[in-house]
Amino acid sequence: MIDLVDTAEEARFRTSARAWLRANVPSPPLPSGDTREGFARHVEWERRLFDARWSVVSWPERYGGRDASLWEWLVFEEEYYAAGAPQRVTQNGIFLLAPTLYEFGTPAQQDHLLPRIAAAEDLWCQGWSEPEAGSDLAAVTSRAVRDDAAGGWRLSGQKTWTTRGAFCTHLFGLFRTDPTAGRHRGLTYFLVPLGAPGVTVRGFGRLDGDEGFAEVTFVDVLVPDEAVLGGVGNGWRVAMSTASSERGLSLRSPGRFLATADRLVALARSRAEALSPRLRDRVIRAWVGAQAYQMFTRHQVSAMLDGAQPGARASLNKLFWSELDIELHETALELLGAEAETDTAWSRGFLFSLAGPIYAGTNEIQRTIVAERVLGLPRAP
Ligand SMILES: Cc1cc2nc3c(=O)[nH]c(=O)nc-3n(C[C@H](O)[C@H](O)[C@H](O)COP(=O)(O)OP(=O)(O)OC[C@H]3O[C@@H](n4cnc5c(N)ncnc54)[C@H](O)[C@@H]3O)c2cc1C
Predict the structure, then answer these.
(1) In a 3-state reduction of DSSP, which class is residue 290?
(2) Would the pTM of this model clear 0.85, i.e. be above it?
(3) Which CATH architecture fits 124-237?
């Protein structure tokens, strides 16, 4: 069974979210959140969202949320993107770390960290990839060594491709705590303040020129035992929980693509002269793709409310949204023709869409996961 219609309560929630967004979404749009100045402006926006209790609607009230249901969260996401609201520069904290904290955090970690994430006081980045470990994440060599005298762990190593790392305050990352254990077993998930002595953060530019990435090095960085999330040696399991949020429902909800599809249809309507039968088909295909992704996620939410865990099926979402995003943007660029050079919203969106099949685990890796763990096909030789 898939729930397709707003209940009276969901409809009220939608109206209230829409009204607040209409009155508050910044106009003109904020500068890119992947620049220092733009990031600071986005953090101000996040704090406004928090003050009005819209930053983490599905969280408990005691952490700044509204105890909203998963359906209401989807409704909020639809309204958020339809209103053209700013990108969520807190996404790593809200959508990736927080679900992992709910699953693996101690009550003390939850009570301390979740309200600070909701209020955009702590700004988190993800420290998984290393120069020699990307798709093969279990190859990480950054390590953590127990220091009994100091009562904590000493971290060393290097992370890279850390999104917005140059602007964040904290990093969650995987470190090797037992070099003698199996590759997946010797890892531990750490929560690290980027201001700690021994941490160096160097921002660097992306394809579009914004300083969206950072390289983070750790030289003998001391963190306390409370910096371990989910237990020593349990890092792989904890990281896979974060990955499931990153690939699945939380990071890229359908609202984002429905809004882009609506913008594409509006563009096509205004470009009758460019709308060849082939392009018309592309517009329809991309729009249908966005509706299909919404149906897919509604089906998934219905299953989750019946107790199912998305697990490996999160890889299906990731394939779906990343390929859809390219399709939507490529079609818009084709409609715009030479004007695409000057239309920064579509052309920058297109450049970013090209990263979709890479981040959150490449699509080649997701296809292998779907083949082996969702469809039960034999492992490739
Ligand atoms: C926009 C963006 C943001 C990112 N943000 C972060 C971040 O915040 N934190 C973070 O830790 N990382 C981040 N990353 C890094 C991202 O997770 C890695 O780029 C990704 O996991 C791939 O790793 P790699 O770049 O080392 O490529 P590689 O692993 O070297 O892969 C290169 C190519 O080989 C293919 N390949 C590799 N192994 C296999 C295999 N077994 N089977 C089939 N094909 C294979 C890959 O699919 C890919 O096409 C980000 C990347 C991008 C583009």
Answers:
(1) helix
(2) yes
(3) Beta Barrel (2.40)
